[in-house]
């Protein structure tokens, strides 16, 4: 998202923050104000009732104080504030951060493989719902309680229910990002040069990036389900072997992005066979029988090729030449070429 746009978006959201100017939602403010007015208007009536009136007045006043405390707590917990909210907060401010003005999916949701199914309009309607239902001017204090008209019906104010967590997100699963999709969308160009470089990058992602790990688990669970093995994300994450299998599966998906070049085909020679090499040091790799493999260097010289060693155990020209060879043709390509030359 454009940085200037995001800054403006947040400024607009901040301007919606009413937490510094009010302590309750509008409907509750109106109820409290009318309740206090009705209580004041009935002081004389309560006084005429003697001790019973004093007791009733105290009870209704205490009830009003408790009502105000409850509604202030409800406002604080559900409206929130711009300063304290994050895009995942179940408050109105949090809802605006994650929905207002083409907002991006919060990183913490991405990491869980979910998004909020509600829109900005849904949250605006939820705010209206919190502030609607009460008919202003309908509050009355009766001997058996305080009554209001709520949603068109006379109701004891103690029974008027507020919606529970009206601004909480409705989390729905994102489409699974497979390993190959993740690599194509996220990997830098430097990681896409070879399977080895991509493998190294993906290992880091599966170690440190929760989004990659979550998608690896979900991809694995889906693949197991397709062959009749029912697993849940939670079961996989709780089992070390399942987690290793999930990472391996995701890695294999990612590796499919890099199309390996076809290795050159051996050509027969008087001594045995050779393959031409497009390399910065060598022009050919040859086999002359008796386990003798050698490079033809660009200066015409011959150098032994340590073709059946692991790459990490090679040294000299073999290490540098075969490192480039395997980066181009894949891990194990040097050994495979040795076997192919030996059979040619």
Gap between N and C termini, in Å? Answer: 57 Å
Roughly what percent helix?
Answer: 40-55%
- The low-confidence parts are none
By DSSP, the count of extended strands is 10
Largest sheet: 5 strands, antiparallel
DSSP helix count? 14
pLDDT averaged over residues: 92
Strand arrangement, largest sheet? 6-7-8-9-10
Strand content: 5-15%
Helix-strand makeup class: alpha+beta
Detailed description of the structure:
- The chain is an alpha+beta fold and 344 residues long.
- The chain is built from 14 helices and ten strands.
- The strands form three sheets. It has a five-stranded antiparallel sheet with strand order 6-7-8-9-10, covered by helices on one side.
- A hairpin with a 4-residue loop joins β6 and β7.
- α2 (26-41) packs antiparallel against α4 (50-79).
- It is rod-shaped and about 125 Å long.
- The chain starts with a helix and ends with a helix.
- 24% of the residues are buried.
- The mean pLDDT is 92.
């Amino acid at each position: 998202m454009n940085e200037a746009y995001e800054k403006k978006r947040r400024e607009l959201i901040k301007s919606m923050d009413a937490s510094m100017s009010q302590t309750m939602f509008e409907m509750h403010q109106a109820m409290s104000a009318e309740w206090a007015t009705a209580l004041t208007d009935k002081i004389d009536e309560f006084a005429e009732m003697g001790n019973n009136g004093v007791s009733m007045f105290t009870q209704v006043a205490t009830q009003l104080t408790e009502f105000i405390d409850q509604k202030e707590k409800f406002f604080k917990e559900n409206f929130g504030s711009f300063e304290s909210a994050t895009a995942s907060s179940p408050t109105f401010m949090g809802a605006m951060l994650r929905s207002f003005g083409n907002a991006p999916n919060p990183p913490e949701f991405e990491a869980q493989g979910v998004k909020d199914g509600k829109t900005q309009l849904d949250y605006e309607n939820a705010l209206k719902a919190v502030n609607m239902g009460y008919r202003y001017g309908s509050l009355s204090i009766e001997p058996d309680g305080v009554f209001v008209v709520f949603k068109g019906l006379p109701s004891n104010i103690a029974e008027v229910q507020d919606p529970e967590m009206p601004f909480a997100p409705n989390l729905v699963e994102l489409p699974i990002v497979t390993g190959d999709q993740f690599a194509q969308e996220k990997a830098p160009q430097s990681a896409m040069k070879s399977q080895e470089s991509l493998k190294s990058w993906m290992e880091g992602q599966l170690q440190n990036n929760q989004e990659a790990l979550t998608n690896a688990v979900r991809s694995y669970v889906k693949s197991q389900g397709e062959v009749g093995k029912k697993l849940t994300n939670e079961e996989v994450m709780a089992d070390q072997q399942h987690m290793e299998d999930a990472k391996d599966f995701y890695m294999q998906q990612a590796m499919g992005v890099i199309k390996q070049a076809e290795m050159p085909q051996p050509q027969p020679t008087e001594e045995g066979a050779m393959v031409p090499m497009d390399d910065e040091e060598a022009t050919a790799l040859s086999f002359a029988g008796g386990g003798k493999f050698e490079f033809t260097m660009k200066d015409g010289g011959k150098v032994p090729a340590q073709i059946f060693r692991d790459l990490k155990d090679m040294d000299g020209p073999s290490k540098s030449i075969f490192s480039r060879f395997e980066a181009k043709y894949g891990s194990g390509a040097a050994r495979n070429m040795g076997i192919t030359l030996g059979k040619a």
